[in-house]
Amino acid sequence: MSGDLYITLLTSLPYHGELFGEQQTPISRIQLESRLRLLEPEDAVTLDAIEQLIRWANHSLDEDDAAVAAQTQRLLEGEICSWLQQLIAYRMEIRTLMAALRRRRRGEGPPERPSGWGVGRWQRRIHANWSEPGFRLEGVFPWVLEANRLMQEEDHLGLERLLLGVTWRALERFGEGHYFDFEAVVVYVLRWGIIDRWSRYHGKAAVARFESLVEQALAGQRLEFVGDG
């Protein structure tokens, strides 16, 4: 894609705003897809592969970690630049760390092999420090102890907020110096995905709270009827 088309694409995209200050994405997925038609075919394929791999909604907690690792490796071995390799590796290292925390939370021991079960540099350290709250990775991931605490307390919304914030700030760092190139497009689309996920998650939480209040109100009415009898 020429530089002019990159400029046209990126200047047509509205500002994201602050992550937790937004109730919805700044642009619909249909509108975003329309803008992304300006991408060169090979760039569109690369972006789709990255989204499919990184989007949290595409990986359930029960998905085979080894399969995800293999999928990541295939993408990393493709013809992508070192910037994209670093971005993908960082994101999947976070997923590996969270998979380990969840596995331990379920009362399971470390994976049979010290490596090959996840993605990135920290598999062996996690395996060797399984009983440590943060796997002795606090210096690399300062938020890991907080994530462990939230998981132990089953504070799912708090954990989701923490992880989305971590990823959002990481994308901000990765985006430094990239304003009108393919890397800037990748950062924009992935941040769009974070806002979309938070708005959906937050919406589900709001519905759950509303249903709980309705149930409490109905329970109160039932008690009144019983008392009247």
What labels describe this entry?
229 residues; disordered C terminus
How would you describe what is shown here?
- This protein is mainly α and 229 residues long.
- The chain has one domain.
- 65% of the residues lie in helices and 0% in strands.
- It is built from nine helices and no strands.
- It starts with a helix and ends with a helix.
- 19% of the residues are buried.
Topology (elements, then pairings):
Layout: H1 3-11, H2 29-36, H3 41-54, H4 65-76, H5 82-105, H6 123-128, H7 144-152, H8 156-174, H9 182-228
Short characterization:
This protein has 229 residues and is mostly helical. The protein contains nine helices and no strands. It has one domain (2-219).
Low-confidence spans:
221-227
Specify the number of helices.
9
Mean pLDDT: 85
Main sheet, how many strands, which sense, barrel?
none
Structural class: mainly alpha
User: CA-to-CA gap between the ends?
Assistant: 76 Å
Q: Judging from the principal axes of the Cα atoms, what is the shape? A: globular
Number of E-type strands: 0
Q: Approximately how much helix is present in the residues?
A: 55-70%
**Residue share in β-strands:** under 5%
SSE order, one letter for each helix or strand: HHHHHHHHH
Rg result: 21 Å
